[in-house]
Amino acid sequence: MDTQKQVQITDQLVESLKPALIFKNFVNLKQNNQLSQQKEVNSIDISHDGKYLVAGCEDNSVSLYDLERGEKVNTYYSKRYGVDLVRFTHHNKCILCASKRDNNYRIMYWSLHDNNILCSFVGHTDTITHIDLNPLNSTFVSCSKDNSTRVWEYEKKQCIIRVNKSRAACFDNTGNVLACLFIKEDKNDSQIQQIHLFNAGNYESKPFSIFNLEELPEIKFLKFSSNGQFIMLGSSENIIVLIDAYEGKQLHKFNANFNETGTPLEAGFTPDSRYVITGSDNKKIIFWNIETGREIQLMEFHPSTVACVKFSHVYCMLISACQNLVVWIPERAFN
């Protein structure tokens, strides 16, 4: 399999992506042992070494896959708490994930090596909406519908700081910057959305940059590109906005009617920061070329809403998920 260092991602390569592997393991059994409707995958992540894929599912399971071998390793269950927002830590057999059926709104630090929950982080008072790991160390940030952001240390098993009235947050590619979304009132008592950039080495300090997000729908999540130049803003409407990470200037507003139903969809960047990727509720996967703004839609292959998409940072491989997991590779790799 070609690695990202050997392959340049271009419009031609994106257009050539074809399904190479399908996992259809997310099913429930009825009492009479007949297969029921498949459950949706709600989150996916790829380990830092690129070897493993983890998928959280609405059937309260976490499945681990070996991407080098193209096979499933094991399935683990959290029937008591449910599973959402699965994320690898810096260890390729340890994950963080949020509960879905728990009034304590916990984040579980879970070793898949021995199927052991090492620690549960409790503090949020409403549904957890986002988890993002710091690429530099063992801290991570979580966001919640309780309008707070918390920074945790998973090795020391403690909360470092709580940021009130922050609705979304993420670390940059270096781990030195934490971006937080706030809603402020201006002089006319109108609400305006702002992104505050903080020094991740000193959370008590004031933000060193503040970006006003004018005339934009409600922002649901933030995400930095891997080169640190862009911040992606996912909105409550059919819009993905790209801003300059240094000045806050709006660069692109991508709109393709990809989410008419309001289903939570994951969006991201390709590892070279040249493309934005999203799934859609019309069963398609959409790429946008950041330089040209060109939209590329992959062939319709999924039977339902594509809620999760992620491009491997090690292999030239796209992972997408609905009820099924699909691995896409360039057409030339079939030859």
Automatic annotation (TrEMBL):
Residues 34-89, 214-257 form the Anaphase-promoting complex subunit 4-like WD40 domain. WD repeats lie at residues 34-75, 121-162, 269-298. One of its GO terms (cellular component) is Set1C/COMPASS complex. SMART domains: WD40 (SM00320). InterPro entries: Apc4-like_WD40_dom, Swd2/WDR82, WD40/YVTN_repeat-like_dom_sf, WD40_repeat_CS, WD40_repeat_dom_sf, WD40_rpt. Its main location: nucleus. Keywords: Nucleus, Repeat, WD repeat. One of its GO terms (biological process) is RNA metabolic process. PANTHER family: WD REPEAT-CONTAINING PROTEIN 82, WD40 REPEAT PROTEIN SWD2. Belongs to the WD repeat SWD2 family. This is Compass component. It comes from Stylonychia lemnae (Ciliate).
